[in-house]
Design brief:
The complex is a heterodimer. By secondary structure, chain A is mainly alpha-helical. Chain A is built from twelve helices and no strands. In chain A, about 75% of the residues lie in helices and about 0% in strands. The two termini of chain A are about 45 Å apart. Chain B contains eleven helices and no strands. The longest helix of chain B has about 40 residues. The chains are: A mainly alpha, B mainly alpha. At the A-B interface, helix 1, helix 3, helix 4, helix 5 and helix 6 of A face helix 1, helix 3, helix 4, helix 5 and helix 6 of B.
Chain lengths: ~290, ~280
């Protein structure tokens, strides 16, 4: 009797774990089925090469490039801001700061990632954009610069926390050896610690990129809703995620081509983040045992 | 000699730069919260919390959105909690190191990185359309439950991992079965850690906007939901809607609603940190 009960419980627990697989299968199936429907009406060549994305207009074009460029532009700005700042924070906290300071500041920094993204969107649109406009005349009130910078603030803790963990995991003997050779903390940090923790740092940056690409509300609020193929950070653009939001807010008929476009856009997004996540997982697994 | 001084100077310069970077994010957050408080604090009163949505900014309130958020949060917890904890127990205590466990692990780590809007597309197709739930509280809760599932699983596993092996050994030595060990020893011992993870996951869920917009949650709902099958709005969607309106009154409303949303998020995070600290001490 007891054995049977144990077995039933174990099977139940296993079933719960298998639900996570079902979720992945569900995501892949839903996205591919709707995307296949989409590509039976729109040629995949057009999708990849057409420089215009106007599925909601009467003259319809279905080129993903403008949405992709919007996504990459905002993400690039965010990363260009967050990587130097986040990395400096991690080095400072791990190699310079007193222990007590690190203990109080780390949870505070993580608060930055806990703020809901819709709130950051408000910040970008109402505070950062007007501020930037006072420097950059002619900047549109929707632009990728402001959205990208605010997104950068949001992902700082992803980089600083994970990189700090990686730096912290480097054995003390390496530090002692470097100081014994007479290096300063700066030399020790950049010539010994950062190379030793490089895999962890790279993982943190890849995760931050993946987070930036999938970020929705900040760009939907502050970057605009005009798909265009540009790398000018002062004009409105539209990201893949913002497009999905735009269509979802409207009254789109199920089974219409417009409805299918959000799944085609979604699968593009999914492929990108999936690749990034897989790469980071591989690196993490490969180097995990390095110092253990 | 010159070289040594130069290196010391560089070292000092980086230290100052490091402090600057560390404070930059926090100062920006403080500036922003200050800004929001100035914009919105005067707008918050009992009527703002209890009023229904309205076309006139000075009459509009957050009651339906707040009730929607509470409904969604409760149902999400009910759905994600048992499944997440059970999956974590399986992975941490039962599964052997084999192909299946590797696949499960890789998969969960991947799910944690899937953008939230993709979960919205999944929810739209599966819960709203195929299972015919419509854009209901239930569909929204299922969607968010799937979204926070990886977070719940990962944090529960961490909590279980932190329970010393001696407790398991002692329990088995007393003749307890595996499940008895899990139920009577491991779960109570890791309760604080599990709770921390769950509160953090829920604080993430309460701020989620995009997936709920995708499944069709509305910005304008005339009444608070009274059953899981009702239409709903949530606080972040209400905020998003007010931000996109041109009249200045709505900006004030958005700021006021943001104060309330931030309050909820920060309080949840604070509780989580409190439990984490209290619980970490237990095993040291």
């Amino acid at each position: 009797m007891r054995k049977l009960k144990e077995l039933v419980i174990e099977r139940g627990l296993l079933l719960s774990a298998l639900i996570t697989i079902a979720v992945t299968v569900g995501i892949v199936l839903v996205l591919s089925i709707e995307a296949i429907n989409f590509f039976s009406e729109v040629s995949i060549i057009d999708f990849i090469t057409d420089p215009e994305w106007t599925p909601l207009f009467s003259d319809k074009h279905f080129g993903i490039l403008p949405l992709l460029s919007g996504t990459l532009l905002t993400s690039f700005i965010a990363i260009a801001f967050a990587v130097p700042v986040g990395l400096s924070i991690s080095i400072y906290l791990s190699e310079y700061a007193p222990k007590s300071f690190r203990r109080t500041i780390k949870p505070l920094l993580e608060l930055l990632a806990a703020v809901p993204t819709v709130v950051y969107g408000f910040f970008a649109l109402m505070v950062v954009t007007p501020f930037l406009q006072s420097f950059i005349p002619g900047m549109s009130s929707f632009n990728s610069l402001s959205a990208g910078l605010v997104m950068g603030i949001m992902i700082i803790p992803y980089i600083s926390s994970l990189s700090e963990d990686a730096l912290h995991a480097v054995p003390n003997s390496l530090r002692e050896a470097a100081y014994g050779m007479g290096s300063t903390r700066l030399q020790n940090s950049f010539k010994v610690m950062v190379p030793a923790a490089s895999s962890g740092i790279i993982v943190s940056i890849i995760l931050a990129i993946s987070r930036a690409i999938g970020e929705t509300m900040i760009v939907a609020i502050a970057a605009g809703q005009q798909p265009r193929l540009t790398f000018d950070p002062t004009v409105p653009v539209e990201t893949i995620t913002a497009y999905i939001v735009q269509v979802s807010l409207g009254d789109v008929q199920h089974d219409s081509l417009e409805y299918k476009t959000i799944f085609a856009a979604g699968i593009t997004l999914f492929v990108f983040t999936f690749l990034l996540n897989t790469i980071s997982y591989r690196i993490r697994k490969k180097f995990q045992e390095k110092y253990e | 000699m010159n070289n040594i001084r130069k290196n010391r100077l560089k070292d000092q310069a980086f230290k100052i730069w490091g402090i600057f970077c560390t404070l930059l994010g926090l100062v920006l957050l403080a500036v922003f919260i200050g800004n929001i408080l100035v914009d919105g604090i005067m707008r918050i009163d009992w009527e703002f919390v209890m009023n229904l949505p309205s076309r006139k900014p000075e009459k509009a309130g957050i009651y339906t959105a707040l009730m929607g958020s509470i409904w969604v949060l409760l149902l999400t917890t009910l759905i994600a909690l048992p499944v997440g904890i059970a999956a974590a127990i399986y992975l941490e205590e039962y599964s052997k190191k084999n192909r299946l466990s590797t696949i499960l692990e890789v998969n969960i780590s991947n799910l944690a990185g899937v953008p939230s809007i993709i979960y919205g597309l999944l929810g739209l197709e599966v819960f709203v359309r195929i299972l015919e739930m419509g854009a209901s509280v239930l569909a929204g809760s299922f969607t968010l439950a799937l979204l926070i599932l990886p977070i719940v699983i990962v944090s529960t596993r961490e909590a279980l991992k932190a329970v010393p092996k001696s407790i398991r050994d002692a329990s088995f030595a007393m003749g307890a079965s595996k499940w008895q060990t899990v139920y009577h020893q491991l779960l109570p011992a890791s309760f604080g850690g599990i709770l921390t993870g769950i509160i953090l996951a829920l604080s993430r869920a309460v701020g989620e906007t995009a997936p709920l917009i995708v499944i069709g949650a509305l910005a304008y709902v005339p009444f608070a939901p009274s059953s899981p099958m009702d239409e709903f709005s949530v606080l972040p969607i209400q905020i998003f809607n007010w931000i996109t309106r041109p009249q200045h009154g709505f900006v004030e409303n958005a700021a006021a609603a943001i104060i309330i949303l931030l309050l909820i998020t920060f309080v949840m995070n604070g509780i989580a940190v409190y439990f984490r600290n209290k619980w970490q001490k237990k095993f040291k």
